[in-house]
Amino acid sequence: MPLFNAQRALAYYGTLVGFGVSALLVNVGCVLLAWWPSSPAAERACQRLIHGFFAGLVRLLAWIRIARIEYRGFDRLQPAGAILVANHPGLLDAPFLLARVSRGVCLFKPAIRRNPLFGAVAHRAGYLAVDGAMGLVRAAADKARGGATLLIFPEGTRSPSPASLHPFHRGFAVIARAAGVPVQLIRIESDIEIMTREQPWWRLPQLPARIVVQAGPCLDPLAAASAAALVATAEDWFRSAQPVLVRSAADAGSIGLPAQPKDIPLPLSAH
């Protein structure tokens, strides 16, 4: 058991360091490319770079047996021009989704602009800060109509616990109705707490983790009577969904879960 704990700690903290260094280098590269004029083509190139980076991270997590991520129902997703609405149990939720979306655009907190790992990257990829700007809805709707997939966590922050949710903000519904694009619900679930509010990133979790990222119903925003009605429908689905993962004693005592290719499908092709 001490050897297993040492292996687990080395894999976990080594991955954190590697991820941080890689993200910093990409961010510095984006800073050095400040002379490159912003354009839709430049944004798409950066979005695909992020997509490839996180797809590689997902495979690394499986290879070193930190986590196995299973994507369910993603073959039914609309390839472009949609809004992905997901719950937000942990810090890795956005990477897990961006690993499957080649033209993803995140709506992020304004503080990310100052983040040394992601600030410049987010800017170059055309991500949008949720800072109350009057043009936010119009800008987000334009990107969705242009074929980008918007990634929105309607809770606005991480969930208070994996089993509960914050009330949803209505921004995603307003954007969806303005753009006339579908709202795809995505539920993220893990059999352990990893990078949640109760399990900070620096505290070693009880690895390995099994994570399911499941596509739920796709909602037509214009079929709802109002933005509030659309929000209520989405929130009801998340609150009524039954857990699909239960951690067993065998999982807790094993060195790792086998990572079969079928559990981690190839990323969606670029569009």
Fill in the keyword field for this structure.
seven-stranded mixed sheet; 8 helices; 7 strands; disordered C terminus
Report on this model:
With 271 residues, the chain is an alpha/beta fold. It has one domain. Helix content is 39%, strand content 15%. It is built from 8 helices and 7 strands. The chain has a 7-stranded mixed β-sheet with strand order 1-7-6-2-5-3-4, sandwiched between helices. The protein is globular.
User: What's the alpha carbon Rg, rounded to whole Å?
Assistant: 18 Å
Helix content: 25-40%
Average pLDDT rating: 85
- For the secondary structure, the number of strands is 7
Q: Give the count of helical stretches.
A: 8
Read across the widest sheet, the strand sequence of neighbours is: 1-7-6-2-5-3-4
Alpha-beta classification: alpha/beta
Order of helices and strands: HHEEHEHEHEHEEHH
Write a brief structural summary:
With 271 residues, this protein is an alpha/beta fold.
Q: What's the SSE blueprint?
A:
Layout: H1 2-32, H2 40-63, E1 67-72, E2 82-86, H3 93-98, E3 104-108, H4 119-124, E4 128-129, H5 136-145, E5 149-152, H6 171-179, E6 183-190, E7 209-219, H7 227-240, H8 249-253
Parallel strand pairs: 1-7, 2-5, 2-6, 3-4, 3-5
Antiparallel strand pairs: 6-7
